[in-house]
Amino acid sequence: MKDPWSLLDQARERGREMKLPFAGALLPGEAHQLLRSVPEARIIDVRTQAEWDWVGRIPGAVMIEWNAWPSGERNPRFIEQLKARVPDTSAPTLFICRSGARSHSAAAAAAASGYANAYNVLEGFEGRKDEHGHRNTVAGWRAAGLPWEQS
Prior knowledge:
The chain is of the alpha/beta class. It has helices at residues 4-18, 28-37, 49-54, 78-85, 101-112; strands at residues 24-26, 42-45, 62-63, 93-96, 118-121. It has one domain: Rhodanese-like domain (Oxidized Rhodanese, domain 1), CATH 3.40.250.10.
């Protein structure tokens, strides 16, 4: 198991290379390891209620929609809800969505609102599509065999 602080150093370096507007980026396995070894770290799942219910969820994740279901409209209370659920703006705060796009935007918004250690989880919960157009087989939290549950 890699030292959690070296994981964060690696994530920050990845963030600099990618020119991210937040602290950095983690792969799913790195995010899971960090969550297991740094008690104050939190993972924020920014998918929709429908995705949490029908696709699955990460045990212990803080769930705050970035976009509302079914309208797809941006959640205007996202930062307010984040601050209420994760008040420690200095703790490692990891954002995850289906494939990494919404979580990128959420991490950027969090960083702009004072979350100094906001990270995007690359690949997301389901990862990219495989050659058959299916998710959950090539990359992402589920394909990596990390803990998840389904309603």
